[in-house]
C-alpha cells in the first residue's frame, strides 16, 4: 500500500499529465449563433392575421362545410411540416417548437385564406337553385330552414338565418339561392331569400 507521500506524488504526476493533455487538445468553443427568429415571429404573426381575415371574409360566403375547411387547413399544415427543418437551420436558429408553430400559425392560415380568396375572385357562371321549405325552426338567436329531403343541411351558411329576420321566412314555401361557381370548384353564395 502506498504511503501518503507516494500518493501525493502520484496525484502530482496525474495533474501534470492532465495539464499536458489539456494543452495538446484545447477544447474548442463552438460559436453560439445569435437568435435571428425575431423577424420570422413578426412575419408569422402578420400572416396569421392576414390568413384569418381572408378565411373570415371568403370562406364564410363559400358553400363548404366547417369540416371541409378544417381538412383543407390540416392538409396545408401537413404539407408545411414536410419541409425538412434542416433547410431552415441553414439560415435560422429555429427549434422544433418554432418549426411547428411556423406551420400552424404561419403557413396554414395564410395559404388557406389565399385558397378561398382565389376561389372567390375567379368566380363566374351565376345560377339559381330553388328548394321547397318543409319547416322553419325558430330559436333565440339563430333559426334554421329545413328544406325538403334535408337538402343542404350540412351547410349552415345556407340554412341558418338571424332570428330577427324570421318574418322574411315565416309562411314562405320556397328558398331561392343564387350561386356563382368559384374558380377552384367551390360554389359562392351570392344571395339567399325565401319566396312565396
Description:
- Helices cover 48% and strands 20% of the residues.
- With 196 residues, the protein is of the alpha+beta class.
- Strands 3-2-1-4-5 form a five-stranded antiparallel β-sheet.
- Helix 3 packs across helix 5 (96-121).
- The longest helix is centred in the middle third of the chain and has 26 residues, at 96-121.
- It starts with a helix and ends with a strand.
Gap from first CA to last CA: 112 Å
Number of strands: 5
Number of helices: 6
Strand order of the largest sheet: 3-2-1-4-5
Which percent band covers the strand fraction? Answer: 15-25%
**Rg result:** 32 Å
Q: Order of SSEs, N→C?
A: HHHHHEEHEEE
Quaternary arrangement of the chains shown? single chain
Percent helix among the residues?
A: 40-55%
What profile does the largest beta sheet have?
5 strands, antiparallel
Going by helix content, strand content and strand pairing, the class is alpha+beta
Which residues sit in consecutive blocks of at least 5 with pLDDT less than 50? Answer: none
How many domains would you count in the coordinates?
A: 2
Shape: rod-shaped
Mean pLDDT: 90
Lay out the secondary structure.
Layout: H1 4-24, H2 38-59, H3 66-81, H4 85-89, H5 96-121, E1 124-137, E2 142-147, H6 156-159, E3 160-162, E4 174-181, E5 187-195
Helix pairs in contact: 2-5, 3-5
Feature tags:
2 domains; five-stranded antiparallel beta sheet
Quick summary:
The protein is an alpha+beta fold and 196 residues long.
